[in-house]
Amino acid sequence: MRLEIIIDRKHQIPTATMEALRQELLKQLGERFPDLHVRVAPGSAMALTVSRASKEDREQIGRAHV
To answer: Nearest CA to 21 among 40, 2, 36, 37?
Structure first.
């Protein structure tokens, strides 16, 4: 499964903060989804994408409280 979070550059989030978010997501969700790959990066708009996952897994990610 691939989880991608794009954060709008206008928010000026430090790279270290984005890496900490990536690590925390791997820590919190990695046990339930051992094949999880997480990418957190700056972009031109905010976005959350879950790919290579079943419908049930996508719903579970959407309900997860990290």
So the answer is: 40
Helix (H) or strand (E) holding 48: strand 47-51
> What is the C-alpha separation between 65 and 11, in angstroms, rounded?
22
Going by their DSSP bridges, the two strands 2-8 and 37-43 should be labelled as parallel
Q: What mean pLDDT do residues 55-59 have?
A: 83
Confidence of residue 11 (pLDDT cuts 50, 70, 90): very high
Distance CA 36, CA 13 (A): 23
**Res 38 pLDDT > 90:** yes
